[in-house]
Amino acid sequence: MTDLGIDQIVSYRLDAENGKLVRSGECALPPGSGPRHFVFHPSGRFAYVINELSSTLGALAYNRSSGALGLLQLVPALPEGHDIHSSHCADIQVHPSGRFLYGSNRGHDSIVIYAIDEQSGRLTYVGHQPTGGKTPRNFAIDPSGAFLLAANQDSDNIVTFRVDAHTGKLSPTGFVAQCPTPVCLKFAVLA
């Protein structure tokens, strides 16, 4: 669980016998980071956190048996020279292939793209894609990994991008749905 106020990701284990969660550890982030959300890599060996206040993303090693997380790397979510006080990170997603990481920037109104090294979990910068609207609070990648949809809260639209399977880069499809104040997108997979 991310805790923005104490700059930590706190781990819990399930005590099934007693029906409760028991705190089992924490991963400290630099003061002022403000961890907002985190996601696991499909391999289960890594996790990634987006830090709202410092506009950074963190790559984390994950120990499945103990539940422990350890910080491997911190990278910027904004382009070099951009004022971190004029933008705040929001959402984070790993591509279904496990090859790319995406994070949204509210204020800069972009999605940052990083390639994931499958062996080390470390990140390499790919680029930024403008979201075609204001305040991309949330976004979702379709289960096939072919499309990313960005929910632009303050411009009342959802913009669809095609994902390049080789580079991770995004390109606008031209499909824009008008939607009042979109803040969350989820794909439902029907059986």
Q: What order do the helices and strands follow?
A: EEEEEEEEEEEEEEE
Indicate the percent of residues in helices: under 10%
Query: How far is the first residue's CA from the last residue's CA?
Result: 29 Å
Number of helical segments with 4 or more residues = 0
The CATH architecture would be 7 Propeller
Number of strand segments = 15
Mean pLDDT: 94
The CATH homologous superfamily is named: YVTN repeat-like/Quinoprotein amine dehydrogenase
Tell me the name of the CATH class: Mainly Beta
Number of individual domains: 1
- The third-level CATH topology is Methylamine Dehydrogenase, Chain H
Cα shape: globular
Q: Widest sheet: strand order?
A: 4-5-6-7
Q: What class would the helix/strand composition place it in?
A: mainly beta
Uncertain residue segments: none
Most strands sheet: 4 strands, antiparallel
- Radius of gyration computed on alpha carbons: 17 Å
Q: Strand share of the residues? A: over 45%
Describe this structure as you would to a colleague.
By secondary structure, the chain is mainly β. It has a single domain, classed as 7 Propeller (Methylamine Dehydrogenase, Chain H). It is built from no helices and 15 strands. A four-stranded antiparallel β-sheet has the order 4-5-6-7, with no helix packed on it. β9 and β10 form a beta hairpin. It is globular and about 50 Å long. 37% of the residues are buried. The model has no long low-confidence stretch (mean pLDDT 94).
